[in-house]
């Protein structure tokens, strides 16, 4: 008997065995579960639940699972179903109470529900093993339900699951998961290992949006000292903490982390950053996403040296540091508008509304002088370290001690919206009609109008005529977890 005939016979026998087997509770549960997965509704709901936990890893897992599901569904419906026109199983041996109220009218091979389930579960697991372990049994039950209700042969389900898992890996090829990216920051440096957190003084910004994180750190590092204060007392408490600490810690967003830099540099202390604000770019770039990451690094003494950006107006005016970026032009105004509306409509919605409002305004380009020539510009962005794109991912810093400033300029002119959008889509191009870019150790900007706002790490100040930007290379030691292999 040919192999193909034997496989088909095995497929039919397996289908019949499942149809004739009674699973306790299955007659009520599995048909309902199968229907809930129609059009991916079950998985979109699960993704929303995962994202609602508001941890970066969970949000990435939910997004990756949804993207994998979308790719699998599009592939099955456009290619899979049309390539193999296999008839659905006969329902004679399937009990009536198991059968779906509305039978599918598409061809049987492969199973779209199984593909979506496997794609979502695999995508989630590639980003977070914990969430993947929670989703996998549900995905397996959905795949089983397609045979149990009589709408697919087992081979349909297996083929669909294989295609779904393949879609998840294809998405990872386009947008790499964090474990595939090179570890950020260099070089590794010596830092005190603090068992139980003894010697760590953590200053918590009480305006931070993750109050539970400080408590989690207290429980994991019971010997650490934790001080909570409002934004108006932050600088004073950081200076006081630095005077008595072996390691200075800070919990909050990028602005809070920035506030700790002067004290850490003056007292030559390592810095432990616990993300807890609306924006936590620096903490995430060094690999700290939650209290477990930071606690593991502090107790093991795992740390790296990073560059610190520095700026001054050159006339004895304001001077400051930045860990992420500094910018002039439309971005500072966008941040002000976003912050004004964020407490009412949420940060993401406020950012979109602020961008629309700003680009529809009659605002004039900023005027600045570079190398003796006065130019109009919509945006000057200066990043602390070169931002790279991997696949279709947004810019990410792979080396936080490269000694370079990532300078991007969006030229002034008509249609600021199209120029800014073109620059964002183009990425780090060195030349284009919309933007210019360069990697420099130092930058000088002159001819700024009085009152020009400078935005740095979510904070603001005012420049007086000119601005000098450079870097303190490998000036700051920060804790970050290392893989076990290290």
Task: Note the main sheet.
Answer: 7 strands, antiparallel
What fraction of residues sit in β-strands? 15-25%
Spans where pLDDT lies below 50 across 5 or more residues: 390-394
Q: What is the count of β-strands?
A: 18
| Average pLDDT over all residues | 82
Question: Which range best describes the helical content: under 10%, 10-25%, 25-40%, 40-55%, 55-70% or over 70%?
Answer: 40-55%
Rg over C-alpha atoms, rounded to the nearest angstrom: 28 Å
Shape label: elongated
The number of helical segments is: 15
Query: How does the helix and strand content classify structurally?
Result: alpha+beta
Distance between the amino and carboxyl termini: 56 Å
Description of the structure:
Strands 8, 9, 10, 13, 14, 16 and 17 form a seven-stranded antiparallel beta sheet that branches. Strands 1, 6, 7, 15 and 18 form a five-stranded antiparallel beta sheet that branches. Helix 3 (41-51) packs antiparallel against helix 4 and helix 4 crosses helix 7 (154-174). This protein has 486 residues and is α+β, with helices and mostly antiparallel strands. It has helices spanning 3-20, 26-36, 41-51, 56-83, 112-127, 129-148, 154-174, 211-220, 234-244, 254-267, 281-285, 291-300, 330-345, 347-359, 416-426, and strands spanning 188-190, 200-205, 225-229, 247-252, 271-275, 302-312, 319-322, 325-329, 366-370, 373-384, 387-388, 396-397, 405-411, 435-440, 443-445, 452-456, 459-463, 467-479. It is elongated, with a radius of gyration of 28 Å. A hairpin with a 6-residue loop joins strand 6 and strand 7.
């Amino acid at each position: 008997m040919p192999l193909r005939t034997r496989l088909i016979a095995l497929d039919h026998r397996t289908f019949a065995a499942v149809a004739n087997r009674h699973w306790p509770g299955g007659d009520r549960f599995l048909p309902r579960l199968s229907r809930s997965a129609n059009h991916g509704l079950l998985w979109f709901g699960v993704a929303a639940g995962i994202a609602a936990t508001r941890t970066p890893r969970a949000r990435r897992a939910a997004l990756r699972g949804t993207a994998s599901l979308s790719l699998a569904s599009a592939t099955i419906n456009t290619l899979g179903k049309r390539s193999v026109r296999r008839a659905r199983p006969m329902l004679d041996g399937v009990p009536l109470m198991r059968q779906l109220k509305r039978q599918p009218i598409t061809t049987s091979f492969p199973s779209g529900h199984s593909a979506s389930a496997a794609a979502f579960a695999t995508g989630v697991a590639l980003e977070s093993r914990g969430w993947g372990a929670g989703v996998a049994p549900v995905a397996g039950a959905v795949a089983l339900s397609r045979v149990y209700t009589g709408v697919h042969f087992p081979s349909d389900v297996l083929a669909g699951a294989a295609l779904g898992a393949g879609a998840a890996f294809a998405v990872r090829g386009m947008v790499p998961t964090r474990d595939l990216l090179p570890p950020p920051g260099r070089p590794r440096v010596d830092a005190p290992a603090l068992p139980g957190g003894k010697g760590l003084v953590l200053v918590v910004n009480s305006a931070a949006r993750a109050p539970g994180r400080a408590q989690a750190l207290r429980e994991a590092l019971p010997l650490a000292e934790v001080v909570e204060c409002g934004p108006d007392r932050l600088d004073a408490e950081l200076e006081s903490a630095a005077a008595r600490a072996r390691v200075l810690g800070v919990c909050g967003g990028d602005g809070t982390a920035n506030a700790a830099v002067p004290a850490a540099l003056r007292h030559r202390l390592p810095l432990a950053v616990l993300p807890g604000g609306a924006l936590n770019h620096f903490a995430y770039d060094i690999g700290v996403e939650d209290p477990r990451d930071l606690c593991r690094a502090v107790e093991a003494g795992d740390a790296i040296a990073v560059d610190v950006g520095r700026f001054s107006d050159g006339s004895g005016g304001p001077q400051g540091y930045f860990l992420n970026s500094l910018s002039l032009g439309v971005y500072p105004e966008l941040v002000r508008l976003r912050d004004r509306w964020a407490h009412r409509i949420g940060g993401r919605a406020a950012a979109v509304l602020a961008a629309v409002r700003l680009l529809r305004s009659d605002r004039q380009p900023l005027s600045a002088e570079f190398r003796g020539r006065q130019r109009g510009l919509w945006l000057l962005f200066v990043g602390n370290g070169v931002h790279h794109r991997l696949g279709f991912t947004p810019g990410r810093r792979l080396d936080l001690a490269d000694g370079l400033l990532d300078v991007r300029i969006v030229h002034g002119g008509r249609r600021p919206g199209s120029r800014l959008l073109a620059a964002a889509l183009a990425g780090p191009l060195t030349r284009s009609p919309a933007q210019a870019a360069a990697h420099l150790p130092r930058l000088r900007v002159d001819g700024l109008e009085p009152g020009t706002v400078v935005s740095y790490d979510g904070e603001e100040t005012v420049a007086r005529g000119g601005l000098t930007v450079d870097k303190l290379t490998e000036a700051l030691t920060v804790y970050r977890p290392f893989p076990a292999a290290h």
